[in-house]
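Slide 14.
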Amino acid sequence: MISDWMRLDRELVLYVVFGAMTFFVNLISYFFFANILGINYLVSNAIAWFLSVLFAYVTNRTWVFESRSPDILKEMALFFGGRIFSGVVDMVLMYTFIDVLVFNDFISKIVVQVIVIVLNYVFSKLIVFKK
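Slide 15: predicted structure.
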């Protein structure tokens, strides 16, 4: 029982650490494509999403959930499927905050990413990397 709690605590800490790193991969990628290259914010958001999902899969599989599943393709499909769902949520919220509510894009990006990180943990824990 105690080892289950310690494992959960370790897992949560690692998820937060790698989630923060994924957040920065997403944020820096978005900033680079949107502000440096001048690409439309929705296209920049999609590129940033893709790069951060690749990073997240490797780190979640290897260090957070320590998956040993031999069926990597199924696991990856579930992971990307969950991330596609949260990616749609991401895009809808970005559009709503920026075009409908006229909020700052950078502030919107940060708020949306917090929501997406929580959704991704729940999906990964309960579906993709379940024991």
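Speaker note: The chain has a mean pLDDT of 91.
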